Description:
By secondary structure, the protein is an all-alpha fold. The protein contains 4 helices and no strands.
Amino acid sequence: xxxxxxxxxxxxxxxxxxxxxxxxxxxxxxxxxxxxxxxxxxxxxxxxxxxxxxxxxxxxxxxxxxxxxxxxxxxxxxxxxxxxxxxxxx
Length: 90
């Protein structure tokens, strides 16, 4: 259900293009919220994962800002929807 919600919220801003960036960032937000909520149960090796995801997200946003065909607002909407879906589904 969370995946469907993030896909819809991420794609609702610019649905005519049909790119998957909003949905991917929605899943990223869902994963980031889950990792944050369960950070005390993570082992040391797994604690690097949020930083890797953050670096990837920053790279994707910078790449999107440089390309006129990429909609960063859909990425942000997907991320917020994914985070909200995870927080709601505690």
